[in-house]
Structures are given as structure tokens and as C-alpha cells.
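re: ur question from earlier - yeah i can do the single chain one, its not a big deal. heres the input i used so u can compare w yours
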Amino acid sequence: MRPLRLELKGFTAFRDAQAIDFEGLDLFAISGPTGSGKSSILDAMTYALYGYVERVGKQTGQLVSQGQARMVVTFEFEVGDERFRVTRSTPAARGATRILLERRDEDGWRQAGEGADRVREANEMIEHALGLDYEAFTRSVLLPQGRFAEFLVGDAPERRRILVELLGLELFERLARRTGELKRDATIAAATNQRLLETEYAGVSSETVARADAAVREAETRENVLGNAEADVRELAERWAKVDSEIRELVSCANDARQAAGAAGASARSLEGLAGRLAESEAAAREQMKIAVAAAKQAEKVGTATADAEKRWGRAKDLGALQAKAEGLSDARAGVTEAEIELKRAGAERPKLEKALAAAKRGVATAVARAKAALLALEVANERLEAARHADLIAAVRTGVRVGDACPVCGARVETLPKTPRAKSLEGAEGARAKAEDRAAATNVALARAETARGAAERDLEAADRVAVRLETDLAERREELTALEVTLSAAMGGKLPPDPVTTLGERLARLEELDEAAHGAAEAAAEAKEEAARAERRRDEVAAEVAEERGRLGAMPVSGLLDRARAVGVPIPIPVPALVLVLSKVAGAKGAAALGAVADELAGALVALADALDARATQHAESGDALLEEASSIVEGLVEREASLGELVDSVAEARRRATGELATARKETETARERLAHAGRLTEEVAAQRERAGRFDALAKELRADRIIAFLQVEALQVLAAAGSEHLSILSGGRYGLRFDEDEFFVVDTWNGEERRSARTLSGGETFLASLALAVALSEQVAALAVTAKARLDSLFLDEGFGTLDPETLEVVVEAIEQLGGDGRMVGVVTHVQELAIRMPARIDVEKSPRGSRLQVVT
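and the output i got, formated as C-alpha cells:
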């Protein structure tokens, strides 16, 4: 198996669609940081092929990327010359897995067969194509983490089972089963043939053959006698057949003549009724034509009146539109008047608003003056209060101070006491200041109210100006619309607008509607009259066609053919033939249905006369057949029973002859069968002996194969070859220290540094186990084709996913060189690693980039 392309979406770390094209890759690394999804690439391959991944078992829904509804993996691979593509999809929630297995041919991809879209059948097809089940695949082709060393140190019976699949040793198991089947078949065949000899062929001898020969000779004699009698009777029957043919022809002609007479009589009766119907339909057609012409003239007259009215006034549609405009004329005039009144009312209101604005402005000026005066009085009261407070403070400081005391402010000795003016009352100054503040606050409130009133007056005046402008514009538009409407109506009504245009236009419209209705009625009446006239003409033509049909039917009467058939019999016909032909000739010249009916009645009588004459002649011919029947009966006397007619006698003799021929054939067949049975019995006797000898040979071979000696020998031989080849690789990988041996169904390691000590491979350390497993995997990949017993076994690819991080630099270098050598000879080798020293040494690599959105894949060569 060789991978070609892998596509995956919603699988573990790969949320978005990713693809790897393996074509052109022989040796490569799959590298990336821990947790990026390197091993998931190998998991995707095993999921696509087997629907199974070791770390989740059958619960593959756990592999769906977080937040995704479903995962889809498409894997294209090659086995020998065949190319396959499998697509497998599983939902995250509960649901069925879907699969499709395809095979490529010259026309492209096609479903690989019946059941390739069902999981169980497709899994079986894939396993058959690969030649490996899941266990064998993950121990020989794809070596995932945790299973890398199982072939080396795993269960021995499982290792042998894998070898059976890898090397095609099941061929010998099939040979053992097939040998047993062949032995049973030979034994059963010998017993069956012996039973045939004892039952079916009992009594078969040469005397049986002699009795059968005598019966053949007796049957030949009877068959010859009946054959001669049949020939004589058939000759007489042929003579009678000629006479009988003439009789049948005469009777047939008579029947046809009577049938033609009946048809002519039916035509005569039909024409009698058609004559009256034709006269009635012609009169009705003429009358209806007159009515149609009159109706057409009336319709033309009304149509002319309608056209004249439309020419003067216009069409009804135009008048309706004008009437709608006229109805809006009074509304337009009222709208102009109303707009003029509104504009006038707005103009009268403006002086009042201007006066109110002037008064508001004067109020603001007065409030401003009062506020300024109150503010000045507040400033004076503040100054007086400050002076009163200062004086009061000085008085408080001087209280109790005498000459010679220390100054309470600076601490110096007071020499003299200064004189101070009398302080004003502090309480009086504070009361005056409070009153000044109240007056200032009141004037500010009055000023704010005055300014608000002025603003309201200004806004009212501006609003009035805007209304006036709008009213002037509206009045101009209304006047313009009224003028345009009056001009339109005046032009439509002859240049002069009547006092009541709505009524005038309504009267004109009503008149046009009356004319139109009258024209429509007249047109319908004319059309109906015309249609009725056409129907009357069709009824007349239908009756005429029926008359013509009857004329054609009479003219096509097979009179000439009947006369020719009667003459062909070779006997005279005593009838007035010229009279019949003459009657037929009158058909074409008959004028009218009544005359044609008389000719038909005459033709019917002539045809009846012809039929009577033909019947009489047929009766005379029938009397000659009795003599021929008597002669034929004497010829077959004693061979068959007498019959009532020559035809029945011929059939009876022929049947007797056929029976004799059959009896002869039966006797000959029995003779031949007796000879064949005698010969077959001899061959069966020989076959019984040969089959018993064959059963003995296959019995001995089956015993040898059932002992599994060949398979066991080949398994041991293969494991020893693998140990020898793996030993060479392990010696290189371990620097010459270790070798491999296989003994007693287990692999052993030979330690050359410790005196060729042999110990179980299970005792190796982790790094040593990796090297030994790698050596054995390389040997298996190289040797499987040479060891296999079928051409199918071939490992075209090998994937390694474990242990490179545990190697020291020197050992890693040796491993890299070994893997590079393994990548030759057309084999694909891929290694999964996060060790950069290993990844960069590979000719190509698949980089797995980790991101919050999901991992991405990139092939780097």
C-alpha cells in the first residue's frame, strides 16, 4: 500500500480543510510542535481505512474538532497497479458513519462495487485490497505511538498471525481446506457412481440392445405403409380441393353480392330522407344571409354616428379626464379665495406683534436701570459693613489696655493710648446690607422676566413673517394652477369656457356612451347574424356532403370485381350482366338526392339477382365431392377409421403416419439409449475405481496440511530471516554492540560487549528497544516481498511515530542514515518527530503549524 493523497476536515486539531499530496515523496518527516496534530495524520489514515483509531477505540466521534458538527477524511492510495479512494465521515453527536470506496479506471473514479457505500461491506473490500487487518497494518506499515515495539516484544501467537497475513501463508490454510473438499468430493462422486451402477444401470446388457433393434425394424415397416396411403389420399384430396375452391369462391361472390345489395338498399333509404333535409337547409341558408346583410348595414350606420361625435368632442376617455378637471375648477377657485383671506389676516396681525416687541424692549431697559441702581446700593452697603466690622475689632482689642501694659498685637510696652472715633452700630450695617441684597436679587429676577418677554415677542414676529411668506407662495401657486386649469378646459371646449363645464362635459360623455353602446349592440347583432348564416350554410353543406358520400359509396360498389371473380371460376353465369353495368353507370349522372335514391334501389335489385345465380351454381359443384370421398376410403381400409369428408380423412391418415414416425423415432432413440447406457455403465465402473484412488491421495495430503507443518515451518523460517536481517541493522544502529536472534518463539538480543551474552528483547531500555524495533521494522519492510508465498504481499510504505527524542546525537545520526537508506528502492518512508535535527535532514517534510483556529499543513521540499 502506498499513500497518494490525504484530505481531512474537522479531524482533531485540523478544523479547516487540509490536504497532503504524497505523490513524489519517498522519504520525509512529519514535524511540528507538541500537540499540533502530527500523530493525527497517521490516525486519519487508519480511520479512513479501518474506521478505528487505537486511542479512542470505536468512539471515533471523539476525534471531531471542537465546535464542528462532523469530520470528513478522504484517503487516496495505491495497491500494486490499482488505485483506490475512500471517504469516511462521522458526526460529533450520535449518528451513523458514512463511507464511499471508489476505484479508478481509464474513465475516472467509479464506485468500487455493490456495497462500497455501506460501512461493513466497504471495510471488507478495503481489508481484502490491502491484504492486512488493522492489527497487521499497525505493526508492519504504520507504527503508531505505543505499538512501535509490539512486533519485537509482543504476543507470539499474534506475531505469527500477522506473519500469516503479511506473507500470504493463509494460502496453505486454504489449500488444506480445499484438499479436504476435494477428498470429500471424490468420495461422494465414487459412492454416487456406484449407486447409479446398482440402480439406474441395473440389468443393462447386449440382449437389451438386440430387442430394441427388432422394435425399430417393425416400426419402419408400419411407417412406410402409412406413408404410401397418405400420398394416395392426398392426391384425391387435391383434386377435391380444386372443386371445393370453386365452390367457396362462388359462395363468397354470392355473399359479397348480397352484402353490396344491402348497402345499396341502405343508401336508397338514406337518400330518401336526405332529399327533404337538403331542401330545408338551402331555404334556411338563404333567409339567414338576408338577415346578416341588414344587420351589417345597421352596425355601419351607428359606427358612423359614433365617429362623428368623437371627432367633435373627443373620445370618452378624454371627456372623462376633462370632467374630472372641471370638477376641480370650483375647488381651485375657492382655494385661491381662502388663500387671499389668510394672507390678509396675517398682514393685519403683524402691527400688533411689532407693538408688543417695542413694549418688551422698553421693559428690558427699565429693568436694566433698576438692576444697576440696586447693584450700586449693594456695593455701598458692603463698604459700610466692612467699616463697622473694623471699628468693632479695634474697640475689642483696646478693651482693658492701660499705659505701661504689653501691646496685645505686637507685645511692646504701651506708652500712650490712641484716640479712636466712635464706631457705628455693627448690627445696623448688617441689616442695611441684607436689604440691599434682597433689592438686587429682585431686580435681577425682573430683568430676566423682561428679557424672556422680549425674546418671545421677537419669535412671534419672526413666525408671523414666515407664515406671511408661505401664504404668499401658496396664493401664487393656487392662482397659477387655476389659470392653467381654465386655459386647458377652455381649449378643450372650443375656446370658450361654459358657465357649468361639468354639466356640459357630462352630457357629452353620456351621449358618447349611448352611441358606443348602440354601436357595440349593432356589431354584436351583425356578428351573430353572420355566424348564424354561416351555421345555416354549414348545415346545408353537411347535408350535401352526406348526399355526395352516398353517391361515392354507390359508385364504389364492387360490381366489376364480382363479375370478374365469377368468370374466373370457369362456368357460365346465366344473368343479364350488361343490365347491371348499365344501372351502375346511372349513379354519376343522377341529379339530386331523390333521383340518386331511385338508382340505388334499382342497383340493389340487380345485385340480388346476381347472388341467386351464383348460389345455384355452387350447389351443382358440391355434388361431385361424394365420389372422391368413397374412392379415398377404399384406399385406407383397415388402416384408419372412415371419415365424413376428404379433409378429415387426410388428417386422420396424416395423424396415423405421424404417430408411426414418432414410434419409429422412439424405438431408434431407445436403441441408441440402450447402447449409450451400456457404454456409460462401463465408463462409470472405471470412474469409480479412479475416484476411490483420488480420494485416497487427497486424504493423505489433507492430513499433512491439517497438521500446520508447512505454515509453522515457514513462520519460523521467516522470523529467523527477519532476525538475521534485523541483526545487521541493529549492529549498525548500536555501534556494533547488539545483534538479534530468534529462538523458541521469542526475539533475543546478543550483547557483544558482554561476551556474546543473550538476553530477552524485553529487558532492553527504552532507547535500546526503539533501536531494536526500528531495525526489525526495516528488516520486515525489506524482506516481506522475498519471504511471501504470493506476489500480493509488498510493503510499499512505512511510517514511524516514536522514540526519536530519546536518542543521543551520535545514535540519532546513525538512525538518520539508516532511514535515508531505507527510503530507496521505490519505498515511501515517513517519520513523525518534533526533533528538528531529524526533520531538517529529510529530503522533504510536512510541517504542522499550530494556531488558535486549528492546525495547518504545508509540504516543504
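The two ends are 23 Å apart (CA to CA). not sure if urs matches, ping me
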